[in-house]
Specification:
The chain has 534 residues and is an alpha/beta fold. Helix content is 33%, strand content 24%. Strands 1, 2, 3, 4, 5, 20, 21 and 22 form an 8-stranded mixed β-sheet that branches. The chain has an 8-stranded parallel β-sheet with strand order 6-13-14-15-16-17-18-19. The protein has a 6-stranded mixed β-sheet with strand order 7-8-9-10-12-11, sandwiched between helices. The protein is globular, with a radius of gyration of 23 Å.
């Protein structure tokens, strides 16, 4: 076992004391953090040239296979008009004319006239093959006529529970699939036609990208059999280990049948017992309670600006049944709840589970919380529920459409992270990649400025909701690790903790937050081993 001294550095520990100048790694754990002068002897030394060292980032909410796929698709987030989108699609088709399908991701509703995409808009530039374009929030899929035909969607195709096939005045599908319609048609077809080799390539892309971003651990929020098999193969290719730590929540959709829903919970509990290595483990279930504010599919306590509203994907009684069963099985429950009606339902279900199963240590989670009712942070703190939030979702470059859908005083309480800090709720930061960019440092820029990492020319929005850099990084490292029960040994640079850390070429604590946009991770260490150097 090699003992290594990393010296001549500025270490932000996310612990007490917050700063140090050297650490010693013994095997896969940290043996010392402090001054260089008092560091114990080591077998080898690494001079870090005064660079910043951070605990390894923990992306506490991501979608691994989807992110790996997205890294190989046509990126549309920067397209600000329909013409821009059409140009990118035409260029992609011309670059690969033999491809049997064209896939893109990241388009924004406010780039489309009236926020109403149609198949005809895609057909104008690509009509000869099916085209599937996932929205930036990954809750809608925009398709062309060839894709509608491939999916077998006609005027007689029913809307699935919790979703909608958008139709024209004559009842014909126009080319946009919302929520579970995207899942059950577009995504199901994608899963059925993707090969293991393609999934393996996606896994390798996502591992490479995360390590280069200083991310040492991830929490997948919609794992399934395809993902499990792909990451098991990735571990087998490496002799049983992975180069970063993967914890996952098994996706449990609302099937409309209590018996089937409970069977899926039971399957997740069996997998949690079976898949429990230090590198890959099933820790809980994921439930999606509503959609997104951008698409007016999030369940709100009061209507949107246009007078519409959306029903929750899970009825309250069915949700309570599943949450109580999962809680009784010792599973962590993560619930997607963007609207205030959905997050209130989530907390009601957790309180029901506590009343049924009794008091014990538990740490359930609510994901996103983009708009929650006043008093929600305090209620979460009382119940021990983690607030899992994504700074990059508040980026001003994509915020205008979000604000326009509410267009009232609710906009002023968008993504109010300090409310959760003040209430004492555990706050874990993440990216929800690929619905937003995965780089951890850019995420920290948005968190600490409320300015845009996508378009720095944009003015900050709601700077009163920003958090200081040291707290932002702690939420993305120490608290993100704690959100999956690992707070005692990961996410901090402290003696006895896992030797997971990242070395950054510039120090935004000294240079200012703008440095986060240009900073690069030059070394990522996981379990004491350098997994990335660049």
């Amino acid at each position: 076992m090699t003992r290594t001294l990393y010296r001549n550095a500025r270490l932000f520990t996310a612990d007490d004391p917050a700063w140090a100048e050297a650490l010693v790694v013994d095997g896969d754990s940290i043996a010392y953090v402090g001054d260089t002068a008092t560091a114990p002897t080591a077998d080898e030394e690494v001079d870090l040239d005064g660079r910043l060292v951070l605990p390894g980032f923990v992306d506490a909410h991501t979608h691994l296979l989807m992110m790996g796929d997205a890294l190989g698709q046509v990126g549309l987030t920067d397209a600000r008009t329909l013409a821009d989108i059409q140009r990118l699609l035409a260029e992609a088709r011309a670059a690969d004319p033999d491809a049997p399908v064209l896939r893109g991701r990241g388009w924004l509703f406010d780039a489309i006239p009236d926020g109403a995409p149609t198949a005809a808009m895609i057909d104008e530039v690509v009509a000869d093959v099916p085209v599937y374009l996932d929205a930036n929030d990954y809750h809608s899929c925009w398709v062309n006529s060839a894709a509608l035909a491939e999916l077998g969607i006609t005027r007689d195709t029913p809307d699935p529970h919790g979703g909608r096939i958008e139709r024209d005045a004559d009842g014909e599908a126009v080319g946009i699939l919302y929520e579970t319609a995207a899942q059950q048609y577009a995504w199901a077809h994608r899963d059925a036609t993707t090969t293991d080799a393609q999934r393996d390539a996606a896994v390798e892309r996502v591992i490479e990208a995360y390590l280069a971003a200083g991310v040492t651990a991830v929490v997948d929020m919609a794992f399934d059999d395809f993902g499990l098999a792909a990451f098991r193969r990735a571990a087998e290719r490496r002799g049983g280990a992975l180069p970063l730590r993967v914890a996952v929540h098994w996706f449990v959709p609302n099937t409309g049948d209590d018996e089937e829903n409970l069977a899926r919970v039971a399957r997740a509990a069996d997998l949690a017992a079976e898949v429990a290595s230090p590198w890959l483990r099933v820790i809980g279930i994921k439930l999606v309670l509503d959609g997104t504010i951008d698409a007016c599919t999030a369940a709100m306590g009061h209507p949107y600006a246009d007078g519409s509203n959306a029903e929750p994907i899970w009825p309250a009684d069915r949700l309570a049944t599943v949450v109580a069963a999962a809680d009784a099985s010792g599973l962590q429950i993560a619930m997607h709840a963007i609207g205030d009606r959905a997050s209130t339902m989530a907390l009601d279900a957790i309180e029901h589970a506590i009343s049924v199963n009794g008091e014990r240590d538990r740490r359930h989670r609510i994901e996103h919380l983009e708009y929650a009712a006043p008093g929600t942070p305090e209620r979460m703190a009382r119940l021990g529920v983690t607030a899992s939030m994504q700074p990059v979702h508040s980026d001003p470059a994509i915020f205008a459409n979000w604000a326009a859908q509410l267009d009232d005083e609710r906009v002023d309480r968008a993504f109010p992270w300090p409310e959760y800090e003040k209430a004492g709720a555990l706050l874990a930061f993440s990216t929800d990649a690929p619905t937003a960019p995965y780089p951890a440092l850019a995420n920290m820029y948005v968190a600490t400025t409320r300015a845009s990492a996508l378009d720095p020319a944009q003015a900050a929005v709601h700077p009163q909701h920003a958090v200081p850099l040291e707290r932002a990084i702690a939420h993305a490292t120490r608290d993100a690790a704690a959100s999956v029960g690992d707070g005692g040994w990961r996410g901090r640079l402290a003696q006895g903790c896992a030797a997971d850390f990242a070395v950054v070429d510039v120090d935004p604590f000294e240079s200012g937050a703008d440095a986060l946009l240009a900073a690069r991770v030059v070394r990522t260490v996981v379990a004491g081993r350098t997994q990335y150097e660049g």
